[in-house]
Amino acid sequence: MTPLIAGLDHVQIEAPAGCEAAARAFFGRVLGLPELRKPAALQSAGGVWFGLPDGRQLHVGVAADFVPRVKGHPALRCVNLRDVQTHLQACGVPFQPDDRAGMPRVFLCDPFGNRLEIVQHGHGHDLG
Fold it and tell me: Which residues fall within 8 angstroms of residue 89, CB to CB, at 6 or more apart?
């Protein structure tokens, strides 16, 4: 049977109104993600979209009743976690190393208090 779901297109995290400059500074300048142009019909809602190297996207959307997510989170992949840690330290971004899942990773928060994970290489789980 052909799977109904072919993959992950994007992840959206929430942020408060007026988040755009902080989102651009953190996701764009600190994490190095390129900003994507939102469709014209969605631009008035605020927020910012970013591209990931594999073609997927990370959307920062404005929520009127914003509450930071401290458990649920997106996990971003990297090739060399030590390089990421060095870069985060240089940018003054606190993080917590963790290897309980059997792979190197760090947890950190975006400027809005949302939990993020950066994992080296990814989980690599196969379906089946």
Answer: none
